[in-house]
Every structure is written in C-alpha cells, then in structure tokens.
Amino acid sequence: MPNGLTGTAPMLKVLSSESGIRVMDFILEVLVKFEDYSAVDLVNKTHEKGGSWDRVYIPGMNCERTSDL
Q1: 24: Cβ–Cβ under 8 A, 6 or more apart, which residues?
Q2: CA 48 to CA 50: how far, in whole Å?
Q3: Are 24 and 15 in contact (CB under 8 A)?
Q4: Which of 16, 26, 39, 62 is most buried per CB count within 10 Å?
Q5: Other residues' Cβ atoms within 10 Å of the Cβ of residue 51
Q6: pTM assigned to the model
Q7: What is the DSSP letter of 49?
Q8: Is 50 helix (H, G, I), strand (E, B) or coil?
Q9: Residues 6+ away with beta carbon under 8 Å from 34
Q10: Which position has the higher pLDDT, 42 or 12?
Q11: Cβ atoms within 10 A of the Cβ of 55, count?
C-alpha cells in the first residue's frame, strides 16, 4: 500500500464486495497518482473553471454531479 497505508474497515468492505479487488486496484492507482498533491492542489484540480463541479455548483444548493460530467 502507498506510504504505509494499512487496511481499514471501509477498505475491507470494498475488498469483500463482488468487484472488490478490481475496485481496490483502481483506488490504489488513484492514491499513488495523486499522493504528491496537496489538499489545495486537489481542490483546485477538481474545482477548475469549466469542470464538472463548476458546471453544477449553485451556492446554497446541494447539486448532483452525474457520471457523464
């Protein structure tokens, strides 16, 4: 596991699901890919102008971002 992560209850729940190993492989791939990003970097990346978050955000509302975004 990256940077010494250990198994947690949610991780074990994912692993025990039908597609658990494939899903956990994907999660670990994402963690490794973005492990050097700061929290601010990740927020900036996910909230960039024209991105999915920007297209659905309405102040004070709880708007859903769908997969197609």
Answers
A1: 11, 14, 15
A2: 6
A3: yes
A4: 26
A5: 14
A6: 0.55
A7: T
A8: coil
A9: 42
A10: 42
A11: 11
